Structure formats: structure tokens, C-alpha cells
């Protein structure tokens, strides 16, 4: 299956955050996330493994109380049910990969 980013609609999640679901199967999901500088993603957790790769911009990532600033080329792996929060320090584009697929994103 080919997915062309220019053909994928973007969904506003909340002010300052948009997401595109690029591709998925029951076992895996790839999403592009765009955050406007200053946007905070509140602490949350989910029963999915997640790998978050920074394509551009900078984030302050808080994973279970451990805080680091990450930038282009950096990534963070989140095990299932680990509390995490993010703050975009500037306009940021991320690649989020989930296993299994986030069915809640498809609703």
C-alpha cells in the first residue's frame, strides 16, 4: 500500500495540534503530528507501545517524570501505559508509531 502525504487529510486534535494518519494495520500505525510552538500535550497514557521521532522542531518530553529536550533526529520509546506529556518549544513535526494500531484515532 502506498500512502501519499499530500492526499491525507489533517485532523485538528486541539488548538496547536494536528494529526495525519499515514498508514496502519491492526498491528501498527504511523502518524504525522504537527505542534505549534508553545503547545502542551497534557500527561496521558495508553495501552500501546509508541515511538516518537522528531522530524523538525524541538520538544520538552516528560516520560514518567524524566524530562529531556529533544530535537531533529531524536526519538523516545514509550512502553505501554507509561505516563507522558510533551511541550513544543517551537513549531514541531513528529512521526508517531504505535503498536498495536490506535483504533481510537480511527473513530
SSE layout:
Blueprint: E1 11-14, E2 17-25, E3 28-35, E4 40-44, E5 49-56, E6 59-63, E7 66-70, E8 75-78, E9 84-88, E10 92-99, H1 103-106
Antiparallel strand pairs: 1-2, 2-3, 3-10, 4-9, 5-8, 5-10, 6-7, 6-9
Could you characterize what this model shows?
The protein is mainly beta and 107 residues long. Helices cover 4% and strands 57% of the residues. It has one helix at 103-106; strands at residues 11-14, 17-25, 28-35, 40-44, 49-56, 59-63, 66-70, 75-78, 84-88, 92-99. The strands form 2 sheets. Strands 1-2-3-10-5-8 form a 6-stranded antiparallel sheet, with no helix packed on it. It has a 4-stranded antiparallel sheet with strand order 4-9-6-7, with no helix packed on it.
* CA-atom Rg in angstroms: 13 Å
Structural class computed from helices and strand pairing: mainly beta
As a percent range, the share of helical residues equals under 10%
Shape: globular
Taking the sheet with the most strands, its summary is: 6 strands, antiparallel
How many individual helices?
1
Contiguous low-pLDDT stretches (5 residues minimum) are none
Strand content: over 45%
SS elements, strand count: 10
How would you spell out the order of helices and strands?
Answer: EEEEEEEEEEH
Average of per-residue pLDDT values: 97
Strand order of the largest sheet: 1-2-3-10-5-8
- N-to-C terminal Cα separation, in Å? 21 Å
